Amino acid sequence: MCIYKSISRIISRTLLGALVLMLILAASALPAAADDFGPAFFCDGQAFSNCTDTSNPTLAEDTFSCEGTVRDIASCTNLLTGESAPYCVFMGEDMAEGVSTGRDAYLCGGSPERFTDEVNHLFWDFLEEAQQQVGYP
Question: Rounded to two decimals, what is the model's pTM?
């Protein structure tokens, strides 16, 4: 009986770990998947430095190089894949539980008329939901 409980606990933890990993990957893809937007990325506050695909740079898989006006509009290149996003818009400062993370959020895609208040609201809803699912911050 003790061995069964140990094996059951190991399987449960493994499945939970796999779920957390999938949710972390989904967290960076959710805003980008909405309405053919993407990528979404985060940079150090008020600068185009340390730009990554997650608001927590230690969890990042992709990094970005950006040019333009900080906290406004930029064009960015994914340094891993070489893909270019010519129109990226500042979405706001990332806040976790009401506290600044010191990271600025950007979303790329399309043209200026696509970036409505509704898109901004959905972006933050997707991001907050994904962060809660993975236990971040």
Answer: 0.70
Residue pair 42/52 in contact (Cβ under 8 Å)? The answer is: yes
Distance from C-alpha of 19 to C-alpha of 102, rounded to nearest angstrom: 27
DSSP assignment of 50-112: SEESSSSGGG-S-EEEEEE-TTSEEEEEETTT--EEEEEEEEEEEEETTEEEEEEEEEE-S-G
* Residue 25 banded pLDDT, cuts 50, 70, 90: very low
* DSSP classification of residue 42: E
DSSP structural state of residue 49: -
103: phi then psi, degrees, rounded to nearest 5: -125, 140
Structure tokens at 129: 């939901």
